[in-house]
Specification:
Elements (H helix, E strand, L loop, with lengths): L2 E4 L5 H10 L9 H4 L12 E5 L2 E6 L1 E6 L2 E6 L9 E2 L5 H17 L4 E4 L12 H9 L3 E12 L7 H5 L2 H11 L4 E3 L4 H16 L7 H10 L4 E8 L2 E9 L5 E9 L8 H15 L4 E6 L1 E2 L4 E2 L1 H8 L4 E11 L5
Parallel strand pairs: 5-7, 12-13
Antiparallel strand pairs: 1-2, 2-3, 3-6, 4-5, 7-16, 8-13, 8-16, 9-10, 10-11, 11-12, 14-15
Helix pairs in contact: 3-4, 6-9
Length: about 325
């Protein structure tokens, strides 16, 4: 029988150990990451699923009130989450797990459950039995976003030439000859004004994190948050702030360049460098993130074209919704 428990601080070590050994966990589901947010920003309502006193799944989650409706949602402090499961969780047990979640939400007065699972490229093994269990149990797709991901596979010819479009590769070669240099752990202080200016000019927006928050995260994950930065001499001209969410995927969390140096194609140089770095360090994928907007209802075709020029292909990011009222 699957038992559902609320997360509490004394279970932190068990939680962290489970995420590290899970099929689909990343550091975004660790309490260390979720806990960096200021107290009171989210109403944490994370759950632990146990059988025979052993953890079989976790749900990093929060309680959200929308008008008169109570929702249990994947933790909004992470890009994705959903149910985090142990290796080789069977189809039968997956169905029992989802049933236990639904029953818990019925008993605790929730009106909706919204889950945003970790994308498949981050999974250490096939685990679609979990998605099947969600759909079989009445969860429906609420919305779908599309990310662009490059598979890092070794071959005989240079990798960048093999995967980039002719135009992207020409620009990469141009950048190699431009005198720019790439630093694999650049100074975030150098990059942040470039990012803020780019977001303000292009989207009238701000980064999802403050500079202080990113610096704090960097102290928590010194080897797993890395800034690949391009410089002309000592002048910073572009950067990609990467989250190494697990040992499989390099996630490009923030990407920006200084418009005054665009003619040197610094991002082409950085992406080519990251491809080679990822291959050398055993990563399987380079994830450029989504190019859809407003929960997948708008498509930024120019951004897709830019990322696909480097050899990337589409990977779904799905969000499930369950109406608990149907069970009451």
């Amino acid at each position: 029988m699957v038992i559902v428990k609320n997360y509490s601080k004394e279970l932190e070590n068990q939680w962290e150990e489970f995420v590290g050994s899970s099929v689909n966990g990343t550091f975004m589901q660790e309490r260390k990451f979720l806990g960096y947010h200021p107290s009171g920003r989210f109403s944490d309502h994370s759950l632990i699923f146990m059988e025979d006193k052993k953890i079989i799944a976790l749900l990093p989650a929060a309680l959200v009130q929308q008008e008169d409706k109570s929702m249990l949602i994947s933790h909004p402090g992470a890009s994705h989450g959903g149910l985090i499961i142990k290796s080789s969780l069977s189809t039968k047990k997956s169905l029992e797990l989802v049933s236990a979640l639904v029953e818990y939400c019925v008993m605790n007065g929730f009106d909706y459950i919204r889950l945003k699972p970790v994308p498949r490229v981050y999974h250490r093994e096939f685990s679609d039995q979990l998605d099947f269990a969600l759909r079989f149990s009445g969860f429906r797709l609420d919305y779908t976003e599309l990310a662009t991901v490059l598979e890092l596979k070794k071959g005989e010819e240079p990798f960048a030439k093999r995967v980039m479009s002719d135009t992207a590769f020409r620009n990469y070669q141009k950048a190699l000859k431009s005198g720019l240099s790439v630093v694999e752990d650049g100074n975030i202080n150098d990059f942040w004004p470039i990012l803020e200016n780019k977001l303000k000019y292009n989207h009238n927006a701000k980064p999802a994190h403050t500079l202080d928050e990113i610096k704090h995260l960097k102290t928590l994950y010194p080897n797993r948050i890395k800034l690949f930065a391009a410089y002309e001499g000592v002048t910073p001209v572009a950067g990609v702030l990467a989250f190494l969410l697990n040992d499989r995927v390099i996630n490009c969390f923030y990407i920006a360049h200084h418009d005054g140096f665009q003619h040197l194609r610094p991002l082409n140089l950085i992406f080519g460098h990251m491809m080679e770095w990822g291959l050398k360090n055993g990563f399987s994928y380079l994830d450029w993130g989504i190019s859809t907007e407003a929960k997948g209802s708008r498509v930024n075709t120019g951004l897709f074209r830019f990322k696909e020029g480097y050899g990337g292909h589409g990977v779904l990011r799905e969000c499930y919704l369950y109406e608990v009222n149907n069970m009451k």
